[in-house]
Amino acid sequence: MAETITLTIQRFDPSVDNEPYYKDYEVPNDDPDFAPFTALKALHYVNRYFEPIGYDYNCRRDSCGRCAMMIDGQPHLACGFVLSSTHTLEPLKGFPIIRDLVVDKKDAYAKFVGGSSSIKTLDPETVTKSFDDGSLWLDKIYSINACRECMSCYGICSALQINGKWDSFAGPGATMQVYMRSIDTMDHDDRVSQAVFAQNIFECIQCGLCNTVCPAGIPIQENIKELMDKAEARGLKPETDSDTTYWPLL
To answer: Bridge partners of 82?
Structure first.
């Protein structure tokens, strides 16, 4: 294990800087009290011993999702990413930068809320009943409920990052909230129509990159495809947008 680690961190304070810049920091990696040495611990070290730096975190144990950032070009939770030698830390891609590694996620959060994920039923008594044998909860809904809302899937989504569908597509995470209710036997709303007309799920190009970065292991690509298939079977699939770039499945 290397005794020091080089971190190249993107810095940017909109109040004083014209554009982002990168700065290198050498941090020690030989203190057993810090093992395993994660990106979040390294940021604590930089903030304490070098200079103040903006970054967000809370739980420090891979649960809250607040420390999501780009590490070596891919979205990760900093608290769970173990460093090795040289790494580049950048703010989560596609979001307005507040300062350094802190980004403004409020528009994406609004799409989660807009998904109206609370159960809608014509028979309120059914919400007190358990799922048949628990398999629906264990196999499908449990993993979606484990979503950190970290926005890692947004930071790598091709529809958002390549095709720029930020204004139209609700994004992978928010779509999962609608999907969860679409399979919920206690929910009576038309979630398939919601996914098509409010979430614009057909903006998703099924690249599968969201699956590779989700810390909760949610099969986002497959779940969105299931919604797409249901919508197409009902004749709800819109015409293909001519400015959409399609990638092959991974």
So the answer is: 38
Which residue in the block uniquely carries the two structure tokens 């004083």?
Answer: 16
The end-to-end CA distance of the chain, in Å, is 33
- Asked if 49 and 34 count as a contact pair (C-beta separation under 8 A), the reply is no
Whole-angstrom CA distances from 170 to 1, 56, 76, 153 are: 42, 24, 21, 12
φ, ψ dihedrals at 69, nearest 5°: -160, 170
pTM value surpassing 0.90: no
Q: What CA–CA distance (Å, rounded) separates 11 from 19?
A: 9
Does position 246 have pLDDT exceeding 50, yes or no? no
Higher per-residue confidence, 117 vs 10: 10
- 108-144 tens-digit pLDDT: 999 988 877 677 766 666 555 555 556 776 677 888 9
Q: How many residues does the chain have?
A: 250
**Secondary structure string (H, E, C) spanning 173-240:** HHHHHHHHHHCCCCCCCCHHHHHHHCCCHHHCCCCCHHHHHCCCCCCHHHHHHHHHHHHHHCCCCCCC
Integer-rounded Cα Rg, in Å, for the chain is 20
34-48 tens-digit pLDDT: 778 999 999 999 999
Phi-psi region of 243 (alpha: psi -120 to 50; beta: other; left: phi over 0): alpha
Partners of 7 in beta bridges: 25, 87
Is the peptide bond preceding residue 36 cis, with omega within 30 degrees of 0?
yes
Q: SS3 for 37?
A: coil
CA pair distance 198, 168, nearest whole angstrom: 9
Residue in the structure block whose two tokens are 């358990």? 130
- The two most distant CA atoms of the chain are separated, in Å, by 63
Instruction: Kindly tell me the sign of the dihedral angle through the C-alpha atoms of 146, 151, 156, 158.
Output: positive
